[in-house]
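A reminder from the course coordinator: this example appears on the midterm review sheet, so study it carefully.

Given structure:
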């Protein structure tokens, strides 16, 4: 099931906000060391970074995926006509 661009953005934002709230809770609420430290280091923080980069570079990632799948890219889908017709005798 493919998500539309808007649905994907909404899902990424939600995951990013939940991870940010967890990180803020870890920083500002005293918790016993142990599982919280490892969970933050190896799960929540990388998830926060990954969703942040995915939101930041979403257009480029979508373009790269389209290129890998063999679909049309934005540049090849709509050729832009030139402003003036070219004179074949001029170089």
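Designed residues:
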């Amino acid at each position: 099931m493919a998500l539309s661009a808007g649905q994907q953005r909404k899902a990424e934002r939600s995951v990013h906000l939940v991870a940010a709230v967890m990180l803020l809770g870890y920083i500002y609420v005293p918790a016993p060391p142990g599982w919280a430290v490892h969970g933050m280091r190896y799960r929540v923080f990388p998830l926060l970074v990954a969703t942040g980069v995915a939101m930041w570079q979403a257009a480029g990632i979508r373009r790269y995926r389209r290129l890998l799948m063999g679909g049309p890219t934005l540049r090849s889908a709509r050729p832009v006509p030139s402003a003036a017709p070219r004179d074949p005798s001029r170089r």
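The longest helix spans residues 5-28. The chain has a mean pLDDT of 79.
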